[in-house]
Structure formats: C-alpha cells, structure tokens
Amino acid sequence: MTATIEVQGLQQGYGKTVVLHDIDLTVMPGEILALIGPSGAGKTTLVSTIMGMLRPKAGRVRVLGRAVPDRALLARIGYMAQTDALYTTLSARENLMFFGTMMGVDRATLVQRLPQATAVVNLDQALDQAVGDYSGGMKRRLSLAIALLADPPLLILDEPTVGIDPELRQQIWVELHRLADEGKTILLTTHVMEDAEEASQLMMIRGGAAIAQGTPAALLAAYQVDSIEQVFLKAGRAQDAHNRHD
Amino acid sequence: MRTTGMIKRVMTEMLRDKRTLALMFVAPLLILTLIYFLFQSNGDTTATLAVRGVDTTLTAALKSDHLKLAPVTGHSSAKHVIRTHDYAGMLTQSGDHLTLTLANNDQAKATVIKVGLQSAQIKLKGQAAATGLKAQAQAIAQLQAALAAASKAAGIPVPAQAPARAAGAVSYTTKTRYLYGDKDSTFFDTLLPILMSFVVFFFVFLISGIALLRERTTGTLYRLLATPVRRGEIITGYLAGYGLFAVIQTLLVVLFTIYVFKIQILGSVGWVILINLLLAAAALAMGLFISTFAGSEFQMVQFIPVVVIPQIFFSGIIPVAGMPGWLQAIAHVMPLYYGADAMSQVVEQGAGLAAIGLDLGVLVGFVALFLALNVRTMRKYRQV
Hints:
The structure holds 2 protein chains of 2 kinds.
Chain A (H helix, E strand, L loop, with lengths): L4 E10 L2 E11 L4 E5 L6 H9 L6 E6 L2 E2 L9 E4 L11 H12 L3 H14 L15 H14 L4 E5 L7 H16 L3 E6 L2 H6 L2 E6 L2 E6 L1 H8 L4 H18 L1
Parallel strand pairs in A: 3-8, 3-9, 6-7, 7-8
Antiparallel strand pairs in A: 1-2, 1-4, 4-5, 9-10
Helix pairs in contact in A: 2-3, 2-4, 3-4, 7-8
Chain B lengths: L1 H15 L1 H8 L1 H14 L6 E6 L3 H7 L4 E5 L6 H8 L3 E6 L2 E6 L4 H48 L32 H32 L1 H6 L5 H29 L9 H22 L6 H5 L2 H14 L7 H7 L3 H15 L3 H25 L7
Parallel strand pairs in B: 1-2, 1-3
Antiparallel strand pairs in B: 3-4
C-alpha cells in the first residue's frame, strides 16, 4: 500500500527565513494525522506545502503518489482553511455549489452529495441563509462541509474545531473516524489536546522542527507521561535544552 | 465549467449588492445629466468693461450683448476701479494710445473683452476704408470726366468705362451645415463620447479592483486557488462577469444620450459597445492588477488620484494634439486616451473599423498585458 502523504527532508521558507527544516512525514490511507504546535510553529506552512501551494525549498513531497506541486492533485484534496474563506453575500448552498464546481464535480453529483455533507455539520436547516448572517461556529462548519463535499481521498483541515461546541465536535469526530475507516486520509492541525488524542498519528511542531512524532500511545510511553499535553511540554523542553548546547 | 461557475458567482454577488449596482447604473446617468446642464448655461458670458476717455466712435463699436460699458471719470487707478466695482476690465485712452487692464480672474470674461475690442477695431478700420474708397471713387470719376473733356477736345475716342466697384461692398450670405450636432451644440457634445468611455472605465476599475481585493483579504482567493481551478479561469470569470455589467452600463448611457439629451451618435452603436467593452476589460485588468498593491479598500481608493485622474486629462478633454511632445507621450500610455479617441471618432465622425482599428488594437494590447501580469501575481498564492 502506498502512502497518501510522503515528506522527506523538507525545508521550507520565504526568502531567507527558514520556516520548516528537516521534516519527514509519512501518512498512510486510513490514518488521521494531527499536527500540533503553537501558533507560528509552521503548521500552516507545512499544510500549504503538502497541498502544493508552495514549492518545497528542498526535499521531496509526494501526495497520492504524485510529486507536488501539481494543480490537478487539488481536485482530490478536501481543504478547510484556517480562516473562513466564504462569500458572505451568497447563501451556504451557493457557496457549496460554487466550491464544488471549482473542485470539478458536476452539478448532479453536487446536488446529490450536498445533504450528506451538510448533515454532518448540522447545517441542513440553514442552507439558504446568507453566510453573512452566520455565526462564527456556523461558518466553521460550512467550511468543513465544503471540504467534505467532493468526497476526496485526502482531507486537509486547518484548525477544524475552533469555535465548535463540544457536542458537535464529538459528532464531527465520529464522521472523521468513519471516513478514515473507509480508507480516507485525514491531516489536521490543532492546538486542542482533545483533538490530538483522537488522531491515530501525531506530529508535534515547534519552531519549524518536528519535536515528537508517533501514535499517541507510543508517545505517552516514550515520554513516560499520562497526557499528550505533557508530551508536548516535555518534548519542547528537550528541544530548548538541545538548542542551548548548539 | 469552472469559468461558467466563476461568472455566475461574480454576477450573483454583484446582483446581491444593490448599492454597488446603483452606483454602476445610476451614478453615471446622474453625472452626465449634471454636466449636461452645466454646459447648457455656459453660452452667455457677459462682461462689464470700464471706459475712461475713450473716443465715442470706439465705445459705440465696442458695445454688444456680451459687453457692457461703464464710463468712469476721475483719476483712480484701473486696479482701484476694477476692484471697487467688480468690473472685468478697464480701457483708457490717451491720445491714440489705448491701455486695457483686465481683472483676468475669469478668463471667459477676459476673452469676451479682448475679442470685443479686436472686432471693434476691425469694424472701425472697415468703416475708415469704406470712407476712403468713396473719396477715391469720386476723385477717379472727376479725373475721368476731365480726361473725357480733354480727349474730346483733342479728337481721341474714349473707351467705355467700367464702373468703379468699391471693394468690400460685396455681402456674402452664409448657410452653415453641421456634420455633427447642430447650431445649439455645446462643448458637452464634444465631451459626451469621452465621458461615455470614462464612466465605464472608472466604475469597472473601482468595483472589480475592490472585489478582487476583498477576495484577497477575506482569504477566498487563497481558498479558491486550493481547488484545481486555473488562474486564467479566475481572471476570465471576472472579465466576463464584469464585462457584461459594463455592456449594460454602456447601453444605458447610450440610450440616455439618444433619448434624453437628444444627442446623435453618427457611427454604429455596435462600435460604441465594442469600444466600451474593450475599455472595461482594460479597466478590469488594471483594477485587478492595481488591487495587488492595496492592502484595504481604503488603499484602493487612494489609487484613484494616481491612476484614474491623470487619464481624464489625457482622454481628449484637453486636445492631446496641442500638447508638447513629452505630454503626448504620456497620453499614449493611457488606455482611456485610446478608448476616448475611438469613441469620439465613432460618435462625432461616424468612423468605422478602418479609423478606430489602431485604437482597438492598442486596447487589446493593454488588456493582454495586464491580464498576463495578473496571472503572474497570483503565483504568490499558488505556485502552479
């Protein structure tokens, strides 16, 4: 079985600033990978590189068996951006149809899939309301529905649970696990530790470098702690100590 | 399919935004109407000229509907007289020397006085010449009579004399035909084709630029580029969506011009629409490109004095042919110059493709250049 995402020796940056260094990452189909790290750690840059929005400075990135950047590949990636990028004068349905069309899905298929994608995020009742009248949480949910709409083999979700209430969060996780069980790959960024605990793989990023990587259980065992949060703190302290010795 | 989706979205957003729609369709008509009335009332400038010690023959010749005379006496300076009574000028005479002092705060009034003085002098010279000619004719007649008498006495036959014709006695009748407009045409008739182009350019530039800017700032552009859409498809969607609104705007302006202002359009309305469509495309491509350098709507508006206002000056409102070479060179890098030139030719001279082909070609060039730049700048967001 080939990996959905393969990143080897990735270096990334803007101009002379190095944002990411020496990132190695493999995500297999059916896995849920959570990228955890403080803001500014380089999570979004890594996500952008995997999507092919940024050309790698050095190293190799392959997604679904193809080298990135590759425009056609984007049709197979369901993306949820960190900020809600929605057209506020349009209704939720119009937003969904528009982004679906841009993904290259034909109208009939879109009409058929729309109810399912919106039911997951409890938006089926407010579909014809203008997005400008939506609350922050509703916008977040609509963004997620847009990512799910094209039924892609890879989902990339940038901070998907921000502003979403616990009950709905649970519901979304049930859906994400169901999709993973179908063989879909999910990559998400978060700084909510509860989300990290749901993932099957974790990658902790701090200051542009991966400080810890593995399954939640393996990480807990390796760092001899009893929460993911503590793993992160301990790995961070180890990174600081290491940097001081340089 | 994606392009159709883009067009549909651009148009739906526009139709939902009633204020912008009104701005695009009502504001141009409002502006044109205002300018129309401004130029209607501009035909009758009257000026008052103070005169001191001027010959009565000259003052009589000076007086006209547009020039009122105010005789003054005393020794106050011309400046003082003009300032106290708010005259447009003062004419004084000492011997055969005339001194004209002009307030010159209103050049139209100054022109009325200068032209009045000139034509009065011509009138007087004409009268003097006519008087002189009459005297000469009498002298010639007397000479001829004397000559005839002398010849008779000497027995020489006298040839029949052609009657002496006084030059200047011929009076021509003039019938004026107008190729464009009529005797009531004002500067507005000249201005209108330029304005027709300008309103389309201005509104498309501003609205499309801000629309793309909003896409950048709200992140929808990035989100859009995270789909397999081509950058060219995004730009084409904008071009077609806003192009359609530009055509509707042009049709409105044309209909308004024909039925409300009753101003004729000599050329084909098809050309008018094509010119404005190309100009709208140029405005859109420029607007989208300029929006790259703006961080907010406010900053986009700041580009108006830099990008739009200079174009008005070079659009033909002030004849470009009369400008110094380096200014003409500037005019030739402004899309509105070509659009307005083509539009003036079509509206005022009934020009066809042969005459406006070059203008249209240059506009197409502008569109292509800025579209290419746009597609390039979008690389910042997605490198493929």
